[in-house]
Amino acid sequence: MNFCSHCGSNQLDCKVPAGDHVARYVCQVCGTVHYVNPKMVVGCLVVHEERVLLCRRAIEPRYGFWNLPTGFLESGETVEEGAIRETWEEARARVKVERLHSVYSLPHCDQIIIHFVAQLQETGIEAGPESLEVNFFAETEIPWDDMAFSSHRFALERYFENRLKPDKQTYLGSSCLRTS
Amino acid sequence: MNFCSHCGSNQLDCKVPAGDHVARYVCQVCGTVHYVNPKMVVGCLVVHEERVLLCRRAIEPRYGFWNLPTGFLESGETVEEGAIRETWEEARARVKVERLHSVYSLPHCDQIIIHFVAQLQETGIEAGPESLEVNFFAETEIPWDDMAFSSHRFALERYFENRLKPDKQTYLGSSCLRTS
């Protein structure tokens, strides 16, 4: 950040505002405090006939490596809506979210990744513009060494570890208040 | 947003960038795309002797109403660290996170609220600067009509509904990769 997005001044000071405890960019002209918050990343672990849907990345970072369909949550979306949209965009899969599966923090790059377990609602899948190919994999077929991200590997490992323990898989509370 | 925070230009266009599907502020001078993402809010449902910790708000919005200790996740934090920090700031309670409890989307104001069930690590509590008072409440004592936010009410209702069903309360996956 070089300029204040409110008044256009370049007189930004990085300091702890009164009553706060974290350094922020504060405009010395108009007083606007510029908060920087972690970003949410959401996706689905789509299960079909005991196989999991993976996409091979057609984009950087990690071009050519595999991931669960996952991407940045957009303004105006619930976490479930974002996960369903990303699954359509990357794998042209129409899914229904079943339950929350994992939450993974990446504090060094300010990202929080949430994965849901989801089921196919229609049988077709196809590579979207961000994928080279998409496919379903049984546990023994997962390309573990070619996974793009630790958070996706974590979600997969937890899924296969726990899939035979249904009493350990119930997630209680996810809801949404939409007032507009 | 009135000015580009990268180059200071006021020539911002609200349009869908190439390869995207959502309108963004795009600087017509330097080309920077300004993404606006939902913010994460994290907090704890602290349980002690079958009572839950609530704080009466000393700040707007909803001054004087009750909430679970909860606030915005900061850069560099895991979701659990943010929830523990907020619990200290609002109620001077030292807690240990036990499990994820609820995820609540507020798409109309771009917030996602995550609550964890937590346990006290030290017995003392005290109102922090953002609280008028703090106290533990049994289910029959909760000031339901004076709760500040629907997301906190949701978390409390789910907790009391399900506390006698331990097999329904196990959350599987929460982890963190910290590389710096």
From TrEMBL, chains A, B:
Taxonomy, superkingdom: Bacteria
Segments forming domain Nudix hydrolase: 37-160
Family annotation (Pfam families): NUDIX, Zn_ribbon_Nudix
Record-linked InterPro entries: NUDIX_hydrolase-like_dom_sf, NUDIX_hydrolase_dom, Nudix_N
Protein name per Swiss-Prot or TrEMBL: ADP-ribose pyrophosphatase YjhB, NUDIX family
Organism: Catalinimonas alkaloidigena
